[in-house]
Amino acid sequence: MKFTIFLTAIMIAVFGYQIIYVPDIAAFFNTYGFSGKNMIDRPYTILTSIFVHGGLTHLLSNILVMLFFGMAVEKELGWRKMLAIFFLGAAAGDLLSLVAYPFDAVAVGASAGIFALIGAGILVKPFDLSFYPFIVPLPLAFVGISYALYNVYGFLFDAGSNISYAGHFGGFFVGLIFGFRRQGLGRSLKIIILSLIAVLLVPIILAFLRRLMK
Which pLDDT belongs to residue 136? Predict the structure, then answer.
């Protein structure tokens, strides 16, 4: 779990540096963020963009998910595979985003790498609990599928936002591949299908309870 904490510490440190020492944040993003143009001019941005975040909310939402899913994956698969999943997922997300967004659109943040950990965590540690974002403890499989569905919704109906939904998909698929290799296709599909059913049933049950209470 120490490498998950180490990665989150780097994100926090970089954000602190942004706040204290960076006078022109837009120029900072353009220099260290990822885009097709930056990938050609400054290939290192495929790495630096991971640790740069657009604001406090962006940072906190990423590191909280990172802690729950990253620690679960690291505990189950070891730190080497956790790091491989995270960085390969981040790279896959960046490359897939080139297909969906303008070549010079700059992206920052660890979201694609975190979505890779979500994809793996769903399958290798489905019953570990997360308190974020629902406050109440819920299995990682439930939380992860919820994130995946939200990402599908955002990709289809929130195309004008500054969120790289396509990049999230790239990371998520990398994580699923690692999970499939570990758990096998049959067990992995059972986990995904049952989790999907559980997530879809929740609003139905809540609506039914609201009707009973009227």
Answer: 87
